[in-house]
Write a structure and sequence with these properties.
The chain has 7 helices and 14 strands. It is α/β, with parallel strands linked by helices. The strands form 4 sheets. It has a 6-stranded mixed β-sheet, sandwiched between helices.
Length: 281
């Protein structure tokens, strides 16, 4: 992503410091709309940072329940020749996917900050039949504490702009498998899930998803859809996120900073040693 010029914009700003003002150049994270279309149906519009668009679309369609498996996604096409369609991904869905005129366009249009605003209640998610995620054994607390520094070190565009969220997928040994940045944390998560879906890696049992910022309801439901057993964030979760995690068996960790974190749900999934005490609310 560091080489993706479309994700960063150069601008002129005035910087005030210690009573003096000066003009200088600065970098901004790019925010543009992306439309997803399947034939004559719009599947939604989201504001995102350009880059990894096909992963974003694949992850979005899967995590929001429009498709339920990799085979439902026959093809993804990003038009190149037509400049007016640079923010469009065309999707070909399998014959078992049924869309209607009222399908996704209004229900799934989203801003970069909030994800699918006002979407799904927990009752609606129950009807999707999401399974409880599986982990072969508890995750090591010491390894978990090392993940935020790895994530921060790899946030190339954030380092230039200070304006992007990140989502990263780790295995239980703490190895970073993929990291994606976006102006919306839910988009970053969808890019990670899309990467896994397109690579035939879903469900992501025995993996950890780490997100910058807070762990909100929309992030929890996306992790559950991908079969991820442990979701961690560097900030606080929301009350609805905790409720959903506890009901559907996701281990939810917040305030993962340095050698401290708080387990809001699923404490049995984390192995704590005497040298790494675990705070349980």
């Amino acid at each position: 992503m560091p080489g993706n010029k479309s994700s960063v914009a150069l601008t002129q700003v005035t910087e005030w410091e210690n009573g003096a003002a000066a003009r200088r150049e600065d970098y901004l994270a790019v925010e543009e709309p992306l439309e997803m279309r399947a034939g004559r149906f719009s599947l939604g519009v989201t504001l995102r940072t350009p880059g990894d668009d096909e992963e974003l679309v694949a992850g979005f369609l899967f995590s929001e329940g429009i498709i339920s498996r990799r085979e439902d996604l026959v093809a993804l096409q990003t038009p190149r020749a037509n400049a007016r369609e640079k923010n469009l991904v065309r999707v070909k869905l399998g014959p078992k996917v049924r869309l209607s005129a009222n399908s996704a366009a209004k229900r799934f249009s989203a801003g970069s900050a909030c994800g699918v605003c006002g979407k799904a209640s927990i009752a609606q998610l129950r009807r999707r039949g999401l399974r409880r995620p599986q982990a072969a054994s508890p995750f090591d607390a010491e390894i978990l504490c090392e993940m935020p520094s790895t994530l921060r070190a790899k946030q190339a565009v954030f380092g230039r702009t200070g304006g992007l969220h990140a989502a990263a997928l780790f295995d239980r040994r703490g190895e970073l498998l993929v990291l994606r940045e976006d102006i919306g944390r839910h988009n970053a998560v969808d890019k990670v899930i899309g990467w896994a879906l397109l690579g035939g890696r879903v469900p992501l049992s025995d993996h950890v998803l780490l997100v910058s910022g807070r762990g909100g309801f929309e992030i929890v439901q996306k992790a559950l859809a991908a079969g991820i057993p442990l979701l961690a964030s560097v900030s606080a979760p929301s009350s609805l996120a905790v409720q959903l995690a506890r009901e559907l068996g996701l281990t939810l960790v917040g305030f993962l900073r340095g050698r401290r974190f708080v387990i809001n749900a699923g404490e049995e999934c984390i192995a704590a040693s005497a040298s790494a005490p675990v705070a349980i609310p």
